[in-house]
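A further point concerns the way the authors explain their paired sequence and structure data. For illustration, here is how one protein appears when written out as sequence plus structure tokens:
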Amino acid sequence: MNILERFEVRGSPEQVWMIIRDPQEICRCMPSVQSIDVLDEGHYRSIVTQRIGFISATFEIHTEIVEEQAPNRLVLANRGRTVAGAAGQMRSVDIITVTALNEGTSEVRFESELTLGGQLAVLGAKLIQLKSKEVVAETVKNLKQRLERTVPNGARQL
């Protein structure tokens, strides 16, 4: 399933990149992230709990940075499996791009190709896609609030 979100924020790509590229900072913006461990410069392990409909699952997710073109493009490969709750696994490739716009603003674009297996996949793509959009929207909201504290003049949704 494909997920695409984009928003505009006041600040240079370099200012926005400082938050997006910091795993601790970006995970504070993501709902349901319980912990993140930086294994090395390009690998992370996180624990994420998510509820979809009547099913709850806690995932251990391993993330690898597969491409980085600072301050404009970051490609992440994620793979995870459940460690509690519904049995399942997930894989995704996430692409985050930051593009300079006019008058000191930047556009942030988040694109994800997500695949789920196990009990979560049985729920159906529509329900999972709705939940994914909800999670991404919450992450965007939290990221914008974080950027408002860091970058002068705040942010606005596209």
Observations:
- Residues 2-152 form a domain with the Alpha-D-Glucose-1,6-Bisphosphate; Chain A, domain 4 fold (CATH 3.30.530.20).
- The chain has a mean pLDDT of 87.
- Residues 48 and 104 are 34 Å apart (CA to CA).
- The first helix runs from residue 13 to 20.
